Amino acid sequence: MRERPAVTPSGDPSPSKSAQMPASAKQRPRTPVAESNPTREPAQVIRIWIAPWEDSAGNLHGASHVFTEVVRRRWSLASATDTPATTVLTPLQIQPRQVSTSESERKP
Of 44, 51, 56, 59, which shows the fewest CB atoms inside 10 Å? Predict the structure, then answer.
C-alpha cells in the first residue's frame, strides 16, 4: 500500500519533510542518549514476632513470625553517572601503638 502525500489546508500537496526542515537542523549532529543500567531493587521485608497468647476458649497459641513487605521491589533506571560513589570511612581518632620487644622478636 502506497502512502498518500500530505495535503496543506489550501489543498496543495505539502513538500517532503526534509524540505521543511531548516538547514541548521539537517546538519546538527544527534546527541547520544544517556545510557542507563536498569536494575531490580529488592523488596524491604520485616519480620513481625507474635507473642504467645490465649484465646477466649482458653487455647494457647504459641509464638510465631509473620513476614511482610514494607517496600515492594521495583525497577531502577539509574544511569552509570547517577550511581553513588563508594563511601569512604575515615577514622575519627588514631592512636599510635608501641611495639614491645617481645612482639618484634616474633616477626619471621
Answer: 56
Q: Is 107 helix (H, G, I), strand (E, B) or coil?
A: coil
C-alpha dist (Å) from residue 28 to 18, 21, 22, 25, 43: 13, 11, 10, 5, 44
CB 39 within 8 A of CB 74: no
> In the numeric block, which cell numbers belong to residue 49?
514476632
pTM (whole model) above 0.70: no
Which residues share a beta bridge with 61?
Answer: 53
Q: What is the DSSP string of 6-75?
A: PB-TTSPBPPPHHHHS-HHHHHSPPPPPPPB--EEEPPEEEEEEE--EE-TTS-EE--EEEEEEEE--EE
* 58, 29 contact by CB (below 8 A): no
